[in-house]
Amino acid sequence: MEQDLANVKYVGPATIKRLAEHGVTTIAQLAGMSVDALAALPGIGDNTAPLIIASAQELLAVPPAEEAEIAAVETEVVDELAEEIPAEYIVVVAEPELSKKDLKKAAKKAKKAVKKALKKAEKLEKETKKAARKAEKKVKKAEKKAKKTQKKD
Prior knowledge:
Layout: H1 13-21, H2 27-32, H3 35-39, H4 48-60, H5 64-84, H6 100-152
Helix pairs in contact: 5-6
C-alpha cells in the first residue's frame, strides 16, 4: 500500500508539484533523500528539509528487523574504526537516527577525517624532528666556531 506525499507533514500541493518536477513522487524517494539535496530544491529551506525527511521516514516506519540490521552495521563500523584509530583521536558524538546509506557515509567521512588528522600529526612530528636536528647542527657549528676563536686568542 503506497501512501500519498500529501500525508507527509510540511508538504503541501505546491511542494508536491515541485518534488514531482524533480522526480520525487513517492514517500520512499523523499525519505531516502539527503537533507542537502532536499534543501537545494526551490521553496524548501534548510530548516524545513530535515523535518520533511523525518516525517516521510516516520510514515515508512522501518520494520524492527531493519533497525537491528542498521544497529549491527553501526556497531561493525565503530569496531572497525576503533581498531584502526588511536584512542586519543576518537570523539564520541550523539547523532539522530540515520539511514543505512547515511551511516555508511558518516563512517566513511569520520574515517577520512581521522586519517587526515593522523597524517597531519605525522607531518608535524617530522617537521619537529627536522627542526631539532637543524638546531643541533647550529649548536655544534657555534661550539666549533667558539673553539676555533679560543685557539686563535
